[in-house]
Amino acid sequence: RAKAAGGNCFRFYTPDMSAESRTRMMRHAALRHALDRNEFVVYYQPRVDLKTSRLTGVEALLRWTHPQLGEVSPVDFIPLAEESGLIDSITDWVLRRATQQVQEWTLRHGRPFTVSVNLSARQLRNEKILASVRQALRASGLHPGQLELELTESALMEDADTAAILLKELKRHGLRLSVDDFGTGYSSLAYLRRFPLDCLKLDRSFLLQNHSDEVSPWKLAEAVINLAHTLGLSVVAEGVESEEHLAFLRTTSCDEIQGSCISAPMPPEDMERLLCSTHSEQLLA
Ligand code: C2E
Ligand code: MG
Ligand code: MG
Ligand code: MG
């Protein structure tokens, strides 16, 4: 197995290690070379205005395919990248790639939209991200207002004072900031006011309706959307999968939606095709 997986990088494991920790160690070693060997691709998932059905933006979602290990989910490799410190150079690459791509699309198709890049918690405790963002904007020529950074609730809470200072600095450059997966952590909306946020991404768990619950999560979603608006944040519902989800969201004042009911994350070629078709003017039936 070690041999098949590519030789001496994996020599540290011993037969008594669990299969799980062996997989982990192999991925760890392989991740070090993923950037140099061009194994990453940025996928894009559309975001749509619920009222006009128009494309408003795309989220950049990283994909890694290793020649032997196959496709590894970001849910698995992002934590490894965080532990090993590789996350800074990976994010730097995603920022450059995504801003360059969206600037190209903007120039070619004439309709500006935003691109959102996910940040990890530890990147809010480190000034490196400022240089990465400045570099990506300068190199691509993308308008700063077309770049959005997504931060999870827990990332904001971890070291809130440091994060607040860094986010204010980022905000000075004119980009947009959003809180991702809202509702999965323990922060209150009121607490989030200390950060210069533009947008709240409602976690998809709000749409997983359970009729036996005392208070339907859908009711909660509605309350959160209204409160977010009171605080001046726009709201994106994520994980919108079905007509039922869509019909519910249309009864609320939710601003945008993202999810498989529009499209799964797709490779740049497919996104390109979508932009070329008149269909992108009207992404919802
Ligand atoms: P996220 O930022 O919350 O991204 C949304 C995830 O939900 C994506 O999973 C997307 O494919 C998935 N999704 C979209 N629509 C639907 C839907 O209708 N139903 C369901 N069930 N899922 C949907 P993905 O691409 O596997 O990414 C997972 C997580 O990995 C992301 O969650 C983000 O936290 C992290 N991630 C991905 N790319 C990057 C990156 O470049 N940098 C960092 N730091 N994290 C990343
Ligand atoms: Mg995200
Ligand atoms: Mg999310
Ligand atoms: Mg999520």
Automatic annotation (TrEMBL):
Name of the protein: Diguanylate cyclase
Species lineage: Bacteria, Pseudomonadati, Pseudomonadota, Betaproteobacteria, Burkholderiales
Domain of life: Bacteria
Record-annotated EAL domain positions: 24-279
